[in-house]
Amino acid sequence: MKPRPHSSRLRDALGSLSARLLLAFLLPTLLFLVVAGASVYALARASLEDELGSSLSALAAATASQVSGERMLTIEPGDDVSGTRTWRNLVRLLDGVRTASGVRRVYAVDAKGLVRTDVGGNLPVGAEVPELARDRLELTRVFAGERAASQVLFTGSDGLLYKTGYAPVVQDGQVVGAIGVEGSAAFFGPLRRLWRTFVMASGVALVALALIAVLTARGLARPLRRLMDSALRIGRGDLTTPVPPEPTREIGVLARELEVMRGALESRDRQLKLMLAGVAHEVRNPLGGIALFSGLLQEDLRAGAHADAGSHVDRIQREVTYLQRIVEDFLAFAREQPLARSPLEAPDLVSSACEMLSVDASSKGITLDVDAAPAHLEADGSLLTAALVNLVKNAVQAAPPGSHVRVRGQPRDGAYAIDVQDHGPGIPESERERIFEPFFTTREQGTGLGLPLARKIVRAHGGELALRSTPGDTVFTLTLPCLPAAAGEAPGARR
Q: b/e for 446-471, b at 16 or more Cβ within 10 A?
């Protein structure tokens, strides 16, 4: 099975981003709208139902207070047909309440639930009211002397929803019947319309959010696509094409960091190529010498000329030693050595490095002038000593016989600066730009790794190595961060 190309994986990743953004925008909003809308609708409906039931039961109680229980019980089946005065009076009362309040039906029943008068429902006297069976629990409370309303809405023959309020009819302290008032739940029409409006508005909001999510995903996808293209180019080995800046803040940070990484990789790649070319060049010379003198040695041994064999062996050993030094310098420069930091006194660092070069300096008649002010450092002593030894060694080699090499250390601008000064011919301006390049050297038998390795060590400590050179005055300045405790100490001298 062939691996999928990078472009296909890129499209899949960006498509997945769009889908995730779409879900992130829509899913929480949809859940919120459903839960909030349903909760508000249910709360509004319950509140309106309670209010309607309370109003209907209050109207029933007001009507029941005007009904004489004794006269109501005198109404018998057939009175509605003959139209007795008692029945007509009760009908007139209930019809007035119905007309004034706008309810659909008002009726009076006895304690057995039989109709005594029904205005709006048109049930005959003595008939049973079917709705009473539905509201048995509410009627139990009513016949106990309380007001009540039906707990559920019911649908009338006109398709509308209704609710019934009940109140007891009391005669001489006893409940002898009940008044029922049926009212329409007309508020459900506007409530339903409000719900439909809410659903439509929610749909519009979801569509708008979906559009925003798509546009946002596209807005993110374009810079991300450019960023991923740059990353893929770097992965394929193209370290020369810069990563374009991005206007988006977060992606812009990623682009800048990726550009920094590309620059570092390009610099390291260029440095590695220079190192490999330098190693090949430097190794070729001693290998040629070894091959030459080993051939001469072989010829002398065959000819029996043992007197010259020793000198050939010495030359071979010197070339091997030089080759070994090239390898060691190369490994020291290429290896990423972790720093073993520990407290270090600056005068001890300067004096130990100069002591190692005292014999070489004396052999050339050069005097080492050392002046180091006290300061506390946090550093890898062995690596820093090696870097400083390299600077002092170069100064000793460049200084004319009988002159001075000055090594001074002092606090400067919140850091600790060590100046290594010689009075040699100086470094030409054309060579100053390349003096810290690996394998650049003007000396025979020089590897050109001393100064680059010294700068690498110093920068690893958070410091810097700089050069200032004129004919007769060359100064290498090694600057290191020092601990705050060194700020209050007075400078002193060590020789």
A: bbbbbbbbbbbbbebbebebeeebee
